[in-house]
Specification:
223 residues
Length: 223
Amino acid sequence: MPSKENAAFVACMEDVLDVYELPYDPQHPVVCMDEKPYQLLGESREPLPMRKGSDQKIDSEYVREGTCSIFIFTEPLGGVRHVNVRKQRTSVDWAEEIQYLVDIGYPNVEKITLVLDNLNTHTLASLYRAFPPEEARRIARRLEIHFTPLHGSWLNIAEIELNVMTRQCLHRRIDDFEKLRSELAAWERERNTRSSKIRWHFTNNQAREKMASLYPKIEKSNI
C-alpha cells in the first residue's frame, strides 16, 4: 500500500472496483487471474502413519524436488475457476494460458473482462511473442484488460482463490509435478461442482472514505 497520496494507485483501484460492481453477465464474464510459485518437496524420512489417538508424524527435514508455477483463473460471480501448473513462468506460458481461457474456458462469450496484476509478462505483447500476429490479435480482441495498481495485488480476487486453494489443497508436501497437477485438478472439479462463488463488498465509496489519505489533493490551474 502507498503511504501517502498516490493518483496512479487510486486511478487503477477505482477502475478495478468499478469492474467488481458490474452485474453478472454470462456473455461478458469478469475473470480474475493470478500466479503462484510453488516448491515441490519430498520427505527425507518416511512419515509415521496415523494411529488411534495420534496424528501422522512428519519429519521437519525435507527434500527439494524443484519449483513450478501455478496459474489460476476465477470467475467470482459465475462460481467457476481453472488451475494449471507449468514448469516456468514466462511470457509464452502466460500467453498460452490466455489462449486456453479464450478458446476453451469461454469460447462462446462476446468478451472477457480480465483483471490481473502488473507483472511484466501480463501484456498483450506476450501474445505476439507466442503466436503469429493474426492469432495474437484474435485473442486480444476477446479481452478487456484491467490492471490492479502497483502494490495493490490485494485488489485481485484471484488472490482470494489462491488462498483457498493453498488451505484446502497445498497444506502438505507434494514432491511430484504430475501429482501436483492431478491434486489441483481434483480440487478444481470439487469447487466447480459446488459453484463456489466469491462475493466482493469493497466499493469506491468505501475506498474514498477509508483510504482518504491515498487520494491526492485536487490541483487547480492558474488560468
